Amino acid sequence: MHKSGFVNIVGNPNVGKSTLMNALVGERISIITSKAQTTRHRILGIVNGDDFQIVYSDTPGVLKPNYRLQESMRKFSNSALTDADVLLYVTDVIDSNEKNADFIEKVNENPAYLILIINKIDLINQEKLEALVDKWKQLLPRAEIFPISALEKFNVTPLFNRIKELLPESPPFFDKDQLTDKPARFFVNEIIREKILLHYDKEIPYAVEVVVEQFQEEDKLIRINAVINVERDSQKGIIIGHGGKSLKKVGTDARKDLEAFFEKKVFLELYVKVEKDWRNKEMKLRGFGYQLD
Prior knowledge:
By secondary structure, the protein is an alpha/beta fold. It is 35% helix and 24% strand. The longest helix has 18 residues, at 245-262. The radius of gyration is 20 Å and the shape is globular. It starts with a strand and ends in a 6-residue tail after the last helix.
């Protein structure tokens, strides 16, 4: 008997969904920073065993859209409610559910088996955790509740085993050696964008979209040219920094992670380009791979 299923991960921004995804998959699939809106696309991570295949799906955090870009991100989150066999709703010990009560209601009504994940429990005591569990029992009464720490990998293995139990009987959806549905260029974009999220403050990281223009793989080397798109000339100056120091730092840190990811030497060249107001331009967003329909 073979079991396969889609396990979709949803929740508010900044609750550790990507950390959980990586812990469950056992590989670094989603980028992780302390900033909200780190995840912009729906990313699949595939785990195979002799008699099972779990297709995890990490989605952008649920938020009220202020840009066309954020409308696309909300669509990715909503789409995760339509094809899940198991739905993981992730919250944490400081998360507020008030802003997205409508989404929680959709989660409650969804026919998929529902597991509520309370993440970051290493930050509170047992009494506060019990109060949180009671609160969420009222909000999502049909959910099975798993308190965890994804960062510390506490209670992740029992969660993984429970997910396996809940999978329906099915042949695998993807090849057994496939780790994700995304091409190599996508992970180049994401790793570079992660470094920008880590190195710059305020609006800068959210006004950035990375595009790989060249990905040339040789036996022992990968040559990559990537463009960092920003919305304004002032942002371009900040990204580059005095004498190009800031851009060089991003490139150096990204190259190290890319070499670890691809297990090859990487030659990385970065350029910065102004695409005015790209977050609100349909044609640009479609070109960058976002869903708008």
